[in-house]
Structures are given as C-alpha cells and as structure tokens.
Write a structure and sequence with these properties.
This protein has two domains: 162 residues, Beta-Lactamase (2-Layer Sandwich); 160 residues, Reverse transcriptase/Diguanylate cyclase domain (Alpha-Beta Plaits, 2-Layer Sandwich). With 331 residues, it is an alpha+beta fold. The strands form three sheets. Strands 1, 2, 3, 4, 5, 6 and 7 form a seven-stranded antiparallel β-sheet that branches. Strands 9-10-8-13-14 form a five-stranded mixed β-sheet, with helices on both faces. The protein has eleven helices and 14 strands. A hairpin with a 5-residue loop joins strand 6 and strand 7.
C-alpha cells in the first residue's frame, strides 16, 4: 500500500516549495484574522487538522467542493465525517496508508490522488496534499491539507504561484510581499534568457514619508500607503506585478514590447504618484514618489537589476525637478 503514497516526487510541488510556502504562512500566524483570510482566499480546498485528525478549520472552497459547511466538519475527526476516502484503483484507504498519518509520522509532505465522498453521496477524485506545520521547536503541531479536483486545472507552477502570492500578501496594502516579488524576478530573468522578451523593474518609495508620519501621525502614513498600494493594483496591466518591498518602498515588474516602452511607463507612474492623496480631518495629504525604472540586461541577476533600479530611485530623490530616473538618463 505504501507505494501508492507519493513523497517528495509529486507532480504538484516539491517538498522545498511546500516548505517555502508554509514558512510564509508561519510568518503570519501571529495575526489569526489575517491568516484565516488567507486560507479562505486559497483557490484550493483547505482544511487543518490536529495530529489526532480532529478538524479545526475548513475553508470556503472545501465547502464548495465537498458540500459540508464548516459547522458540520469542525470539531470532528476524519473518521466521523463519512468522507469514505478511497484509492483511485478501488478500496478504502486504511489508516496506515492515510496521507495525514504518514505526514505526521514522517514530518514530510505527503500527496495522494484519491476519491473523497461528497455530502451529496457521489465521489470526487482529488489530489490531496498534507503539509506538516511545525512549531518553533520543530514539532508537528497541525496538518494542513490542500486538495483540488484532478479533472480541473492541473496543480502547476502558475497555481502554486497564486497560492504563494496570497500567502505573502501585505495586510496593509493587500499587495504581495518582498519574498513573492523576489521569486517572480527570478522567474522573469529565466524567461528572458530563454525568449529574449524584455521586462523592466521599477523601484519607488513615497518621498518624505517620515514627514507625513511625524506631522500627521502613523494613521495618516498608513492611509497614504494603503491608497498608493490600491492605485498600483488598479494601475497595472494583467501581466504586471507589484509588491510592497518594505516600509514605504514598492517594487514592480513591468512587461515590455520593446526597451523603448520604458519612458511612457515612467510618465504614467509619475502621474499615478502625483494623483495619490488622502483626506484626513478635512486636510488633503498628497503623495510624491521617487521612481527608478530599469530594463533587464543579459548579465543581470535578481540582485543586480534590483540594485540598479534602487540606485535610480535614490538619484530621483536627489533631484528636485526629476522624479523618475530610467536607463535613458544614463545613456
């Protein structure tokens, strides 16, 4: 029976990828409300169990796929739920072959293609993956299960990226975080080397942000960052990506048809920053951003392209009349 279990060599994600993803989840565990929002936003069925198989969480997609509400599932053990998990080739899955038991005992990600019985009585073929969630001492505290119908879109790199984006999202601006953007830049550089298709990296910060915090308070600063993040989300094309890099800094990946597109993008971002403002107690507080944009080069890696965009941004901060600096300014 054990050969039916897939450990590490799954087609959906490597163990390292899962550890990377759920390492991000552990980073936000201290904010329980935000963590539950992340889980509810996942494009997978998701449930969390204690090692004794008692379910403590059941997300919206799990309810949609299987039919049971959280109220019908939470607090019960798997054996009490009549899910009748069975092998694809036939036969009920015995306890020793259960992916949850195997994940808990081995401390490693376990994945299995299986049938799960819906509330309506029919069986749904799913890919079910169990991820041990450890505490700071390395002990398995909970098991997180992700599952999706195998008849729907395959669990490929794009789907994994969607989950990772949600996992690293910044709660203030609702933009992805730095770690997500770093992985995206790595992917774009690899694609550029294969295809020659150019892209640009934008580095920007809200200029004189500390003056806003000191003059109007941190509430005003947070509102200004939230508004700027909102405008970035609405500004970008479907192929562009933005993140909150940290503090008052933001980074974006901009897809280009040619390297000459960079100047038009720079002007659009300048207009975006100049139009960002909030009203606090009847007073308008405006946003002024310094922006650096650079096109990827053949010898670039992630660190070099980000460092160059960062350097351009600092040059923009030092010039009173120019708020955007691009590669063209160094020709």
């Amino acid at each position: 029976m054990t050969e039916r279990m897939e450990e590490k060599k799954t087609t959906i994600a490597t163990e390292a990828e899962m550890e990377k993803l759920f390492g991000s989840f552990r980073d936000v565990l201290s904010n329980q409300a935000f963590f539950l929002q992340i889980l509810d936003d996942l494009p997978f069925g998701c449930y969390i169990m204690h090692p004794d198989q008692k379910v403590i969480y059941w997300n919206q997609e799990a309810e949609r796929l299987i039919g049971y509400t959280p109220g019908e599932v939470v607090g019960k053990r798997c054996g009490e739920l009549h899910l009748a998990c069975s092998f694809v080739g036939g036969g009920e899955i015995p306890m020793p072959s259960c992916p949850a038991i195997a994940a808990y005992r081995s401390g490693r990600v376990q994945s299995m293609k299986m049938f799960m019985r819906r509330k309506a009585g029919d069986n749904l073929m799913i890919r079910n993956t169990m991820i041990p969630l450890r505490d700071e001492d390395g002990n398995v505290r909970n098991l997180v299960a992700l599952f999706f119908p195998v008849t729907e879109d395959p669990y490929d790199e794009e789907r994994m990226r969607d989950v990772y984006e949600v996992a690293t999202r910044d709660p203030l601006t609702c933009l992805p975080g730095r770690r997500y953007m770093e992985s995206c830049i790595d992917e774009e550089i690899e694609r550029y080397r294969r295809t020659g298709h150019p892209f640009a990296v934008m580095f920007t910060d809200v200029d004189r942000f500390h003056d806003v915090n000191n003059g109007y308070g941190h509430r005003a600063g947070d509102e200004l960052l939230r508004e700027f993040g909102h405008r970035l989300r609405n500004f970008g094309r479907r192929t562009d990506r933005f993140c909150r890099w940290g503090g008052d800094e933001f980074v974006g990946i901009l897809q280009l048809k040619s390297s000459e597109d960079i100047r038009g993008l720079a002007e659009r971002f300048l207009q975006l920053s100049e139009s960002t403002e909030i009203v606090l107690e009847g007073e308008k507080i405006s946003c002024m951003a310094a922006i650096g944009i650079t096109v990827v080069r053949e010898d670039d890696d992630r660190e070099s392209v980000i460092a160059r965009a960062d350097r351009y941004m600092f040059r923009a901060k030092g010039e009173n009349s120019t708020r955007v600096v691009t590669d063209e300014d160094f020709l």
